């Protein structure tokens, strides 16, 4: 399934969803901040997605889930339950958890695995799953190979891995390990390009200067080729934070995204 994140587009959220559906996408990632800014309830937005034929492939992001203890860990779990409530209202089943940036989080991958395993167990009781993503500026986990190790250590069927081309390629990480990952443990793939060399810090570029595949200089096609070797057949979503796209007409941007995604996937075969 091809999907697009709501954060790629400008304008009112309902209009974005309509543009995504019209462009041909079958799925959508809902950005939590878009929900907070919108006047409609999550349930109404979920109903609109259903009416448009859009599958909610993920609600994102859930931040700073791992490596906490005591009261901080308890508050994280309470926050997760609220996200699960929202996800249920949307009609989705997958929550994207991004690797922590907190200095107080424990650095051991086993600590992250324990936290995410508990989170996955809570998700499973509600018929939901957690997909874990390594942010390239993460405090302790900033590499997809580390994130995979966390998922492997947690060993929970409701916990999977997110692979984001930007976070992988911006660090120049090797792709052989990615190509050997079990497809069954990949929950979501996100595609984005970016200018190179990356002259600003990685977080700034990620938040403001991403581009559709083929419009930047990252080796997105190599990433897609490595992914193809896994046999992955799940959702592939455009996640493109861009100040430029943020002022472009919504419908035009959605169509451009579809065309760029289609071209990138066809180029690899």
Provide keyphrases for this structure.
eight-stranded parallel beta barrel, 8 strands, 269 residues, alpha/beta, TIM Barrel
Protein model, in words:
The chain is of the alpha/beta class and 269 residues long. It has one domain (2-268): TIM Barrel (Alpha-Beta Barrel), CATH 3.20.20.150. The protein contains 11 helices and 8 strands. It has helices spanning 13-23, 32-37, 42-52, 70-90, 109-124, 144-154, 165-169, 176-179, 202-208, 220-230, 250-268; strands at 2-5, 27-31, 55-63, 94-98, 129-133, 159-164, 186-191, 236-238. An 8-stranded parallel barrel has the order 1-2-3-4-5-6-7-8, surrounded by 6 helices. The model has no long low-confidence stretch (mean pLDDT 96).
User: Which fold name corresponds to the CATH topology?
Assistant: TIM Barrel
Mean pLDDT: 96
Within the largest sheet, what's the order of strands? 1-2-3-4-5-6-7-8
- Overall number of strands: 8
Span from first to last CA? Answer: 15 Å
Report the CATH C-level class.
Alpha Beta
Summarize the structure.
Pfam families: AP_endonuc_2. With 269 residues, the protein is α/β, with parallel strands linked by helices.
């Amino acid at each position: 399934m091809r999907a697009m994140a709501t954060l790629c587009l400008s304008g009112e959220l309902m209009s974005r969803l309509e543009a995504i559906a019209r462009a041909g996408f079958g799925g959508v990632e809902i950005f939590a901040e878009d929900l907070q800014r919108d006047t409609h309830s999550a349930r109404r937005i979920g109903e609109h997605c259903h009416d448009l034929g859009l599958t909610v492939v993920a609600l994102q992001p859930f931040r700073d889930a791992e490596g906490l203890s005591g009261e901080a860990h308890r508050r994280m779990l309470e926050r997760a339950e609220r996200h699960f409530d929202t996800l249920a209202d949307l009609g989705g089943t997958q929550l994207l958890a991004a690797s922590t940036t907190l200095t107080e989080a424990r650095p051991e991958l086993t600590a992250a695995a324990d936290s995410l395993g508990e989170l996955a167990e809570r998700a499973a009781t509600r018929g939901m799953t957690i997909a874990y993503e390594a942010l390239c500026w993460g405090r302790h986990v900033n590499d997809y190979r580390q994130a995979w190790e966390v998922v492997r250590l947690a060993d929970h069927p409701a916990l999977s891995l997110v692979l984001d081309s930007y976070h992988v390629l911006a660090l120049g990480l090797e792709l052989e390990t990615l190509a050997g990952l079990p497809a069954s443990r990949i929950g979501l793939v996100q595609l984005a390009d970016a200018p190179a060399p990356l002259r600003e810090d990685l977080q700034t570029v990620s938040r403001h200067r991403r581009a559709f595949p083929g419009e930047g200089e990252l080796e997105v096609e190599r990433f897609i080729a490595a992914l193809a070797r896994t046999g992955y057949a799940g959702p592939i979503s455009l996640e493109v934070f861009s100040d430029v796209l943020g002022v472009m007409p919504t419908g035009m941007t959605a169509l451009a995204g579809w065309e760029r995604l289609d071209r990138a996937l066809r180029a690899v075969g």
